[in-house]
Amino acid sequence: MPGFELFGAEEKKEVQDVLDNGVLMRYGFDPMRNGHHKALELERDLANRMQTKYAQVVSSGTAALTVALACAEIGAGDEVIMPTFTFVASFEAILSVGAIPVLCDIDDTLTLDPEAVKKAITKNTKAIMPVHMCGSMADLKALKSICDAHNLILLEDACQAIGAMYDGKPLGSYGDLGCFSFDYVKTVTCGEGGGVITNSEKYAERAHQYQDHGHDHTGNDRGAERHPFLGYNYRISELNAAVGIAQLRKLDTIIAIQEKNYTFLRNALQSIPEVTFRRVPETGVESYAFLNIFLPDENLARKTHKALGEHGVDACFYWFDNNWHYYKKWEHLLEQKSLGKLSEEIQVGLQKNKTSFDASDVWMGRTISCLIKVSWTEEQLKERATKMVNAIKSIV
User: Fold this and answer.
1) Alpha carbon distance 396, 390 (integer Å)
2) pLDDT tens, 205-254?
3) pTM for this one?
4) In DSSP terms, which residues pair with 294 in a beta bridge?
5) Contact 67, 56 (CB under 8 A)
6) What are φ and ψ of residue 251, in 5° steps?
7) Which of 30, 93, 287, 383 could pair with 163 in a Cys bridge, judged by C-beta atoms 3.0 to 4.6 Å apart?
8) Rg, Å, the chain Cα set
């Protein structure tokens, strides 16, 4: 995703402000700061852009998920329903708070199937965590209805979909909590970083304490601060936050360019009867980070993916065989490979993931995701469209 494509003078200026000021840590050293609080500024900007009351920036997207789960009091013995198609950070965060990730089938949105979610709920279910992969979203209205009916937390993992919208709201703001990643290959980058957004004062208060060792941040003496509860260190540095400030200002420009490039390529592929497209839920608007296409079956998808490479089309992904993003290659989760001993609750709970997810396999086996870059020239975009059409037609 394109954040790193647009790294320039704006980011350098914000970083230089921190270096000139000399305070790289977000807390303390107030007499030296001369009014510079980059992490705080990024939080204000993020909350404003996402139309939420509160935002907390942290050290990574994984940290954001971990902090959000902790704020919702999700812990030992609790189950969190998550999709089979995501990034490994989703289940890592759940495990890190002592809870149990419960895998669930996806549908043609490429994220949680609400009907499958209903079947996965048990007395131990505490939260539903849709992961808005590749720039588009789950059917959030249906998932919210399920959460309301069962008194569950709706936690949006929007790490790959910042800038997308659902029901007139920025993605991440629809649920109880929303999380973003600002790593180097996200739409907006801090180099490394993440963010949590919420409209809950309770969750916001917990987040800013939990991510800094449980400090209450009361008073002017950091050494005298109290600790309402246990916390950990998920702080972001002022340097990383500075990059994020400049990047977030570019988000609307990035989305506009991606939409233009995405639309051009999609229009070109619509001429091929065998190609269909990922379903975007009603009222949803993608971030246009990826163009996600379906081929009629797994065999044709595999051949098409190979043909795209042979025709010189880069950045097309066949997730079905990917080690990082699809459950079939998560042997460390499925086989419980851990440096430390897992709790008995987790060991038993993870056993339910040792099953087949045939519905997911059908969709992922047919899916190719094509990254949308913002740096393409008009000539490069036209050339890419021609190569993609020729590659696919050579197979189907």
Assistant:
1) 10
2) 999 999 999 999 998 888 888 999 999 999 999 999 999 999 999 999 99
3) 0.95
4) 276, 367
5) yes
6) -60, -45
7) 287
8) 21
